[in-house]
Write a structure and sequence with these properties.
The complex is a heterodimer of chains A (about 350) and B (about 180).
Chain A lengths: L3 E4 H11 L4 E4 L6 H13 L3 E4 L3 H13 L4 E5 L1 H6 L1 H10 L3 E7 L15 H7 L8 E3 L4 H18 L2 E7 H5 L1 E4 L34 H21 L3 E4 L6 E4 L2 H16 L4 E6 L1 E3 L3 H10 L2 E6 L5 H9 L5 E5 L8 H13 L9
Parallel strand pairs in A: 2-3, 2-4, 4-5, 5-7, 6-7, 10-11, 10-13, 13-14
Antiparallel strand pairs in A: 1-8, 6-12, 9-11
Helix pairs in contact in A: 1-2, 1-7, 3-5, 10-13, 11-12
Chain B lengths: L1 E9 L4 H14 L3 E6 L9 E9 L13 E4 L2 H7 L8 E5 L13 E5 L1 H7 L6 H12 L5 H11 L8 H20 L1
Parallel strand pairs in B: 1-4, 4-5, 5-6
Antiparallel strand pairs in B: 1-3, 2-3
Helix pairs in contact in B: 1-5, 3-4, 4-6, 5-6
The chains are: A alpha/beta (about 350), B alpha/beta (about 180).
Chain lengths: ~350, ~180
């Protein structure tokens, strides 16, 4: 298929319906609204379900219901709206029903503003609701990745019966780039055998997140943990640039990672041995690869559009082997390549003794 | 090759559209391109801007601190962005609304009476296309033919009647700077 000029939000919406999205429930919020707007038109054209709920709380519970019926379903929102969904997400995780949520992140905390931010890293990677679990989190850095990760999100959600969050900052949602959409998939006709489809002629299925006995709850917890371990082993994804012949690594995701790419190019032109690791999955975090690279380099610089959230995962992966620096902008301010370059230079020059590796 | 352009003006002057048109043309010519709008709490009569980056390589940062080219459609935009243009770069400005001799001498200053020329064509909304015609004549980021083809390829069917007028606007913008370069 030929490339089209697509806005991130619209591209995600179109990719979702081409991936066989059957039902969408959501509530408008900038900078994500074009996603909902596009689906409000296209889902009706295709005779599928689009519903603008009365709130994010209602939307997430409608998603829970549809997912329990084995329907391919999603919602989307932006940071404060995702906060409102936390309870529902936890119930969904506790019920193991496949769900896709798109979070087009904006400045916070509180009502904050509508500008691009990565301040939801904790919110989406740590649990997205109460209880012991972590959603799978995909972080696109371009419109093409936004499309590809949206399609992948449905596949992963169904493979693991789990929540998959596509977390992009407002700039990815708002920007236009040439990108290729996937072909239209057939909408799935059959329902999974666990789904609530009416129990006529079979034993009833039960979908619940309540286990009153400690041992039963724990057994279920262990089952989720086993699933998460499998995801941790199989699903980390990342992008690398200039990671050969390396003294220092820059780690950044989404828009920050993309701008860091330009800063790394500039640093290389100035003779600094700098490379980039851009996590494409925020959970599972590509900790193994980062740990490998940490053995070979002298320091890491983390670049984010927040106060340093992924920084914690980088520190955990690096395990205190080498210094980890941080450069971040907040409040919806997008860092420019030259300021990241300056941070790279500052951090790089602090490595006073550059050891010759044998 | 990498070109970075900033388009800025009042909401309603077609700033976003002209940036998108250039982006579509760049895509059609096989370039990598990004288009980013300002999308704060904008209001009618306020200023709006967009960035377009065109490259023959994958584009890292879609934002630039010092664009090589700025196009200012109103005075506040000129005042805000003239100082940001990269050394040796260019600012094209709407001389119908901006009176200036240009503060900076290390960049090209291109005065285009875009609003007056659009008025001559009978539609003030064409000022953005007039400006694009002038810009690409002075600095051929893409050819005017690439813009003509992009207009033809991407104009929505219910706006197709406006195509000839847009092509005229493009030529008018090109002509006004061609005359100036000649004198």
């Amino acid at each position: 298929m030929a490339k089209e000029m697509l806005k991130g939000n619209v591209a995600i919406a179109e990719a979702a319906l081409r991936a066989g999205l059957e039902a969408y429930f959501g509530y408008p919020i900038t900078p994500q609204t074009e996603l909902l707007e596009h689906l409000s038109k296209r889902m009706i054209e295709l005779d599928r379900v689009f519903l603008q709920a009365e709130s994010e709380v209602a939307a997430v519970n409608m998603v829970y219901g549809a997912a329990s019926a084995g329907v391919r379903v999603m919602s989307s929102s932006s940071s404060p709206g995702v906060s409102l969904m936390q309870e529902g997400l936890s119930y969904i995780a506790g019920s193991e029903v496949p769900t896709v949520l798109v979070d087009i992140m904006r400045g916070g905390p509180g009502l904050g503003n509508i500008l691009p931010s990565q301040g939801d890293y904790f919110q989406v990677t740590r649990s997205a609701g109460h209880g012991d679990y972590r959603p799978i989190v995909l972080a696109p850095a371009s419109v093409q990745e936004a499309i590809d990760f949206t399609v992948m999100a449905f596949d992963l959600a169904e493979k693991y019966r789990h929540i998959v969050i596509v977390a992009a900052d407002g700039q990815i949602g708002q920007m236009m780039e040439p990108a290729e959409l996937p072909p239209m998939r057939e909408v799935r006709k059959e329902r999974p055998d666990w789904a609530l489809t009416g129990a006529e002629g079979r034993d009833p299925n039960v979908i619940t997140s309540i286990y009153l006995k400690g041992e039963e709850m724990e057994a279920f917890n262990l089952k989720i943990q086993e699933k998460l371990s499998e995801i941790r082993r199989s699903e980390p994804r990342w992008y690398e640039f200039q990671t050969e012949d390396l003294d220092m690594l820059v780690v950044g995701f989404g828009t920050a990672g993309r701008i860091a790419y330009t800063a790394v190019e500039m640093a290389r032109e100035r003779g600094m041995k700098v490379g980039l690791l851009r996590p494409q999955t925020l959970w599972p975090f590509p900790e193994e690869r980062l740990s490998q690279l940490a053995d070979e380099i002298e320091s890491v610089l983390v670049v984010e559009m927040n106060a340093g959230q992924m920084l914690e995962d980088v520190r955990l992966a690096v395990g205190g082997q080498i210094p980890v620096g941080f450069y971040g902008r907040m409040g919806g301010v997008v860092p420019m390549p030259d300021e990241i370059l300056e941070a790279i230079e500052g951090h790089y020059n602090r490595l006073t003794v550059r050891t010759v590796r044998t | 090759m990498q070109e970075e352009l900033l388009f800025a003006g009042f909401g309603g002057q077609g700033v976003m559209f002209v940036g998108q048109l250039l982006a579509y043309a760049a895509m059609d010519q096989g370039y990598e391109v990004t288009w980013i709008p300002s999308y704060g709490p904008e209001m009618r009569g306020g200023t709006a801007h967009c960035y377009v980056v065109i490259s023959d390589k994958p584009i890292g940062s879609p934002v630039v601190r010092n664009p090589k080219v700025a196009i200012a459609f109103n005075k506040p935009s000129y005042e805000k962005y003239e100082g940001l243009v990269a050394e040796g770069g260019l600012i094209a400005y709407n001389a119908s609304l901006i009176e200036t001799q240009g503060e900076r001498k290390d960049i090209d200053q291109i005065a285009v009476p875009a609003t007056s020329l659009a008025d001559e064509l009978g539609n003030l909304k064409l000022a953005n296309i007039v400006m694009l015609g002038a810009l690409l004549t002075v600095r051929p980021v893409l050819t005017l033919d690439a813009i003509r083809e992009a207009l033809d390829a991407h104009i929505p069917s219910h706006r197709r009647n406006l195509l000839p007028l847009n092509l005229q606007a493009l030529d008018k913008g090109a002509a006004v700077v061609a005359d100036r370069l000649a004198t």
